[in-house]
Amino acid sequence: MRILQLRPGDSSRAEIDANQSRQEPLTVYEGPVESFLTAELGFFVAGTRLYGRIWTRGPNVVIRYYEARPLEGETVPICAVARLSYGGLRKQSSPSPGIAVLEFSNTPIYIVDSFR
Predict the structure, then answer these.
(1) Cα(111)–Cα(12) distance, rounded to whole angstroms?
(2) Comparing 113 with 54, which gets the higher pLDDT?
(3) Span 33-89, pLDDT tens digits
(4) How far apart are CA 27 and CA 13, in angstroms?
(5) What's the pLDDT score for residue 2?
(6) Which residues touch 58 (CB under 8 Å, ≥6 apart)?
(7) DSSP of 3-44, one letter per residue?
(8) In the beta sheet, which residues pair with residue 62?
(9) What angle do CA 105, 63, 31 make, to 5 degrees?
(10) Residue 64 in contact with residue 81, Cβ under 8 Å?
């Protein structure tokens, strides 16, 4: 992460689902997700794609990102999570298992040193 000029706690913002940009409320599905940065994050500029996974069980949606693909460049591994500064991404509702509705389509993301 140091090579990418990133440290745990560094943050930015991202559109959660690249295929549903600016859809509010946002319906998300458990499984793989493609997001994109809306602001710089170290070496990465706005528009960089983020690849990860969404979990919808429990009161919050959990999103972890494992890879970033700069606009011009190769995919690189990262460790990042989507969360609000005061905690997780609280679901508005859950129409059925594996699906969750979020109030906003854009979220803060934070670099972490590992996933627990």
Answers:
(1) 9
(2) 54
(3) 999 999 999 889 999 999 999 999 888 899 999 999 999 889 999 999 998 766 678
(4) 18
(5) 60
(6) none
(7) GGT--TT-EEEEES-GGGTT-SSEEEESEEEEEEESS-BTTB
(8) 55
(9) 95
(10) yes
Cα separation, 39 vs 22, in Å, equals 15
Q: Which amino acid type is present at position 16?
A: I
pLDDT of 5 higher than 80: no
Q: Is the model's pLDDT at 11 over the cut of 80?
A: yes
Helix, strand or coil, per DSSP, at residue 71? coil
Q: Are 13 and 38 in contact (CB under 8 A)?
A: yes
CB 23 within 8 A of CB 5: no
Over its C-alpha atoms, the chain yields an Rg (Å, rounded) of: 13
C-alpha closest to that of 61 among 81, 37, 80, 35:
81
The pLDDT, as a whole number, for residue 3 is 63
